[in-house]
Every structure is written in C-alpha cells, then in structure tokens.
Alkaline phosphatase (Tsuneonella suprasediminis), 530 residues
Amino acid sequence: MSAFSLGTLAVAPLAAHTGAPFGSGFTHGIASGEPAARSVLLWTRFVASQPTALQFEVSDREDFGAIVAGGSVEASPEHDCCAKAVATGLEPRRWYFYRFVAPNGATSPVGRTRTLPEGATDRFRMAVFSCSNMGFGWFNAYRHACEQDAFDLAVHLGDYFYEYDYGHYPAKSQAVAGRVPEPLGETIHLADYRARYASYRRDPDLARLHQIYPTITVWDDHESANDSWKGGAENHQPDTEGQWSVRKAAAMRAYREWMPVSDANWASYDIGDLATLFRLETRLTGRDQQLDLAAALKGTDPAHMQAALEAFKTRDWENPARNLMGADQQQWLSSGLKHSVGAGRKWQVLVQQIVMGSLFLPPEVAEGLSADTPDYVRQRLAAGVLASKVGIPFNLDSWDGYPAARQRLLDAAKEADANLVVLSGDSHNAWACELDGAGVEFAGHSVTSPGAEAYLGWKKPQDTARELVASSSDLKWAETANRGYMAVELTPERASSEWRFMDTIRKRSDVVAKTHSMSTTYGARRFTET
C-alpha cells in the first residue's frame, strides 16, 4: 500500500466553486499561499470600475460561526482588481476557512487553508506540480490531488502557464478541443499576461486546487518567455517585442498580482522541527545567459568537433564566474542551511525550478532513426552524444549549464551538514538523482506538457529511460513518457516521493495508471529501499 493512502483529512472538502461570470464581482474564486505557523496570505479578485474595500474573514468553522482573524484589503483596477491580505494571529497546524465580503454584501467562494506546524512534527505531505500547458490537455493531476484530500500543502515549481500564441505550442493539430487559453496571441505586454492568468484560473481543477490547499509557488521561464535569463530570453525578440526589461517587469508584476505569493524573490518556511523549505529563484534575477552548444560548434568540421567541444568545456562551461542564483541568494541560502541544521530540523528542502542532477545523452539515442529524419535533428543528436563523451551534459538551461554554481550550492549544503531534498520541475519527465553526497533530488514530470516521448518517437520510452540511467551516474531512475505529479512526504526518519502518472490528459479523468516510489532515510543522503 502506498504511504499516501491516508484517507481524508479531518476537515471535509468544500463544495467546488464555479466563480461569477467574468466581468463583475468575484470572478476567479480564492487562493491562499505563503503559509507560516501563525499566518497565511489570502487572495481574491473582485472586478469593479473603481477601488473597492473588501473585508476578509477567517474561521475554524465552515459556517463562520466564530471569526478568528480578519481585516480589510483593497481590490483596485491598478492591480487588475486582484487583492492580497495576510491573516495573522492563527494557531499552528490548523485548517481554517476564509472568505471575502464586498461592500454590497456579495461574498466570495469559501476557501480552505492550513498553517504550518510548530515544534514536534511527525509527518508533512506535499502535492508537487510543474509544467501545465492548457492546450495539451486537462489538468487531471490537479484534480486527483484535490480528490485525494491528503496533503498539507500544494507546491508548484513553475511553468504555471505558457506564453505562446495559439497554434504554436501545442500546434493546432496537437491541441485538445476546448483547451484554448486567452489571449490568442503571445503574452508580451502586461495586459497579455493578466489575461493569460485569468484564462488559466477559470480552469475548474486549478481553481479547486487553490480553493482547498495553501500553495508555495515559484516561476520558471514560461511565466515570462521560454529560456529566460536576467537579460533576455530565447523567445523574446527585442526588434519586434520591445525591451526585455519591460516585458520581464510586466511578467513579474502580473505573477505577483494573480498568484498568492509575497513580493520576495526567495523565502524560507519552517515545518516545525521537521524541515525547512527554501523557495529559490533561478530564472530572472541572477541567471547568466545560457550557453549554446550549437553556436560553439558552428562552422566546425567533423574532424575538429571534439577539440572544439573540449575547448568549450574548459573555457565556457566550467567558467567559475557563471551564476544561476546570484551571490546574494547564494549567501542567503548558505546561511539558511546552517541555521536550519543548527535548529535541529531534519530536512533542508529546495523548492526550485530546474533539474539539478547531471544528465548525459546516451550514444544509443540515435539508433533507429528513420531515413526521413531531418538533417538538423541528426546533427543535434550527434553533437549531444559527442558532448557527453567529453563530459558536457545535454540540457544547458538546467543546473547542468552552470556546474560551478551548482557546486557552490552543494558545497554549502555539505558544510552545513544538511540533508538536502531537492524538488525540481521544468523537464516534463520524472527523474530521481543523487547529488554528490549532499542529498537527493525528486524531479517531477509535467501536468500536461509533452516529455521525451514526443521528441524521441523512434524509441521505446522504457529504452530511453534505461539508457539515460546507464549514461548518467547521478540518475538512479527515470520515466519519460507520462504526465502527472509527485506526492512527497517527510517524516523524521524518511523523505519519499511517489510519482503518480495519470492515465490520460486528453479528457478529464481522475484515474492514475501507475505509480513509482523512492525514498531516502535521514542521514543517508542517497536513495534507500522503500
């Protein structure tokens, strides 16, 4: 039996809300986030033509027979009519109900949230998601996690939505009927990003997730533009789309308006005496531009390709000056790891965007290519395989593109005597990695976005996974063909993940087709028997 077959929580799930029609009143339900032991951030949206003072109420009873916290907050057109308030004076490890009330007496749907524990904590459970592209299908991972009603917290590791125009990703031939986000064009300006959030937040399963669980969320690249970094993005063309700084600011503003998050770029959350969660920012504030393997090889004849790659490796890839988090965040994290261990907390959990374990392209990946495979695909695979042979991994947008920055983080964890558990998204596939004696990584598959099966169609997914594990010493298990989410559980003795794979995303469903579990015991810093 799964460690997560725990039955329902003491508080029954709320009735699902549908929200008011877009255009007036409470249009997008409620949400909560940034939980602490005695406070939580509450969110709603109330559409009106002028700033409107809303009252918020928090109760430990669903009928609101006793109000334990409350106050006033303004919903203003200046912030797209979104409102955020922090409820304080709460008790640790408690479920609470909350709602907003408008001046005319209209009330929002009722939400449920939970404070973090203080002191002795024997178990903490998180539903962990990433990469939810509406066009590719239904958010059945959210639906299943809601129906399970067995988590203390929902965590989203980024790519909450995708910025592309309709028909780009997915192509119209790949898109699921009825799954068309607004606006139809690419999100470039502030109004575009706001409209995309509004569109996604009308999805019933995402709305339900926010209604019944508090969340901790981080942005990745698609909340702004694909493969973004502090000074630009692969999917940003300054000549036609304006200055990157303007677009980045618009993306960050809309995110903070529409999501139940604070304005802090990074933060930590103590889970009693059990763990500290560190929410990291690896995308927009400290990241140097990604390296480009194709550019490094451009114009190089095959006879000199290996020499060019070896020069690229020592000159560029191993450059110690390259940053991913930036010096300020690295110092904050190093100090936080020491403080968490010194306070006696068992686990130091990194809530962050991108895969940390090192992954290398296996030589067998090109076997079975059909005669009509485009030349550029063949060339990229050949370059990737050769790069792996000289010690360069294949995804330079992940931590693999910033090895010196990764080593600084792992060295800080070792110096602090931390027990790292790294939660990662971004890749659309499921991975379990060991991290150089510092801890383990649970890397999650996507909610809907396609994984390796969509790009290596000539290979059986089980062969792809087996070959990747054989070629990558950090990688201990992989699954590269199915969508879903991770159920992560912490106890004083063990940290574990159950990867849950949904049977389909092409229609709404709550059926899990299969699962896989892995865990580490306290102090082992590697995977142990489940």
Notes: Residues 293-477 form one domain. The longest strand covers residues 512-521.
